[in-house]
Amino acid sequence: MGYYILMIVFSLGCLFAGYWAGDMLLTNRIGLVWARLGGLALGLGFLLLGLALERYFRKISLRAIGGGVLGLLVGLVLARLLIVLFSPFLFDPAYWNLTLFILSILLSYWGLVLGGKKSDEWSRGLESPSGVSTLMEKPWLYLLDTSVIIDGRIADLSETGLLPGTFVIPQFILQELHHIADSGDPLKKTRGRRGLDIIEKLQKHPELNVRIVDRDPPKDNVDAKLVDLALELGGLIITNDFNLNKVAELQGIKVLNLNKLANALKPAVLPGEVLNVQIIREGKTPGQGIAYLDDGTMVVVENARRHIGQVIDVTVTSVLQTGTGRMIFTEVRG
């Protein structure tokens, strides 16, 4: 709410400033009506420029912005120092002003660019006496989405110590879980309560750092808000949502998809390998039988319908890898 009020005040301020500038500066030249219209157009231009800059800076970390501003100030100071060196050769004030203008533009631009790009290196150099950065010096932030919290595996993964850093749970994610837990649908209610239990488990773990962040980016849906918050904080998103995964990656955000991680950790199965499985049910194709490995991987067995309920040896013929998992095709070992 506060963001929208601020934007309304900024918009009205730009339009009023343009209107006032046109009324004061252009009335004697082009007439009152055209001066005010021109002033409003000027104010609208500044408003659009401000909105574009705001959208751009939201994608840049606060550290990079600070480095850019510091570089800009250093560039302006250097320009003033250099003009003192050139002063004995610049007798005409017009050349003096022109040289100062050129130096200020060039050095401030270089300072802005270099300060923004090198801010991370400088900060790491100040934090580390040797100036050598290590992987563990980076304060990792992991933003959890609704799907990965309800899934529950994040609690087990966090206990392994493979994710050093801080787990960030935005307030809007917590509100969505409360909404799901209050649903009239028994299945949704169970999922929502499970998600809240997982958050409580993470918070109670003595070696985990969990933060509830009360920030609500002005977006229409939870996924878009999470992406905006990840851009703002420079964090990594942990999710099971395929669509959120793609949208975040397109915007340059690092994503850890637990489904992909689980698939990557499954043991490799090669054609010709023999598996011992129990046929659970009939497959879609006549005569097929369906079995499952301990990790949940589906095994399709040709001509195994008659073995339903039995434990048999099968030979792997091929493996199909998909975005959601893998399927192993086999035949009864003769």
Entry keywords:
3 domains; 5-stranded parallel β-sheet; 334 residues; Rossmann fold; alpha/beta; 55% helix; OB fold (Dihydrolipoamide Acetyltransferase, E2P)
Give the gist of this structure.
The protein has helices at 2-25, 27-30, 32-57, 62-86, 93-117, 119-127, 146-151, 153-158, 171-181, 186-204, 222-233, 242-250, 258-265; strands at 141-144, 166-170, 209-213, 236-239, 255-257, 274-278, 281-282, 289-292, 298-302, 311-321, 326-332.
Question: Would you give an account of this structure?
Answer:
There is one protein chain. By secondary structure, the protein is α/β, with parallel strands linked by helices. Helix 1 runs antiparallel to helix 3 and helix 9 crosses helix 10 (186-204). It is elongated and about 100 Å long. Strands 6-10-11-9-8-7 form a six-stranded mixed β-sheet, with no helix packed on it. A five-stranded parallel β-sheet has the order 3-2-1-4-5. Strand 4, helix 12 and strand 5 (255-257) form a beta-alpha-beta unit. Residues 124-137 have low confidence and may be disordered. It folds into three domains: 2-121, no CATH class; 139-264, 3-Layer(aba) Sandwich (Rossmann fold); 268-332, OB fold (Dihydrolipoamide Acetyltransferase, E2P), CATH 2.40.50. The N and C termini lie far apart (70 Å). 55% of the residues lie in helices and 16% in strands. It has helices spanning 2-25, 27-30, 32-57, 62-86, 93-117, 119-127, 146-151, 153-158, 171-181, 186-204, 222-233, 242-250, 258-265; strands at 141-144, 166-170, 209-213, 236-239, 255-257, 274-278, 281-282, 289-292, 298-302, 311-321, 326-332.
